[in-house]
Write a structure and sequence with these properties.
Number of strands: 14
Number of domains: 2
Strand order of the largest sheet: 8-14-13-10-11
Radius of gyration: 18 Å
Order of helices and strands: HEEEEEEHEEEEEEEE
Length: about 160
């Protein structure tokens, strides 16, 4: 059922992006951010079509190349993002937290080794904690009950949902 809503939102977003990208100097892009933190970006004018399959999304480029991503692996899909703003999504030194909805773990990147990642419940009680390693740090939430939590790292806080 979630895939139907994802496909609907993708279709609406694509339509809006096509309408919004009339000005040539305002370069727009499609960005697919995966649940593992990787991302694929392409200038909207290079996209021939976005195919919405039963279980996956495929970006087809004008030159014939394409990339398919399962809906379950998509954390965010940005259609019509400012091309110059894409670098800001993963700028070095910035903290990124994903996925925002999880059943097991939450990932944090952009920290230096030794920094602390803390997961708080809505009462402000520390529910989980990890020390950052180089690269991506995963914090297991498997022992926590379902609910809303706040991940805090380097003075930044992000709300997540544990299912």
């Amino acid at each position: 059922m979630n895939h139907i809503f994802t496909k609907l939102l993708c279709g609406i977003s694509l339509g809006m992006a096509c309408v919004m990208s009339v000005a040539a100097e305002d370069r727009k892009a499609v960005v697919v951010i995966s649940t593992d933190g990787s991302q694929r970006e392409e200038v909207l004018e290079n996209i021939d079509r976005i195919e919405l399959g039963a279980t996956s999304l495929t970006l087809k480029c004008v030159g014939g190349s394409g990339e398919t991503v399962d809906y379950s692996k998509i954390d965010r899909l940005l259609i019509g993002a400012e091309w110059t703003a894409i670098k800001k999504l993963t700028a070095p030194g910035e903290v990124a937290v994903w996925p925002l909805t999880t059943t097991d773990a939450v990932n944090v990147s952009g920290l230096t080794e030794g920094e602390t990642v803390t997961v708080f419940d809505l009462k402000g009680v520390a529910a989980a904690q990890a020390v950052a390693a180089e690269g991506v740090t995963s914090v297991s939430l498997s022992r926590l009950p379902a609910g809303v939590y706040v991940v805090t790292a380097r003075k930044q806080s992000v709300k997540i949902i544990k299912k």
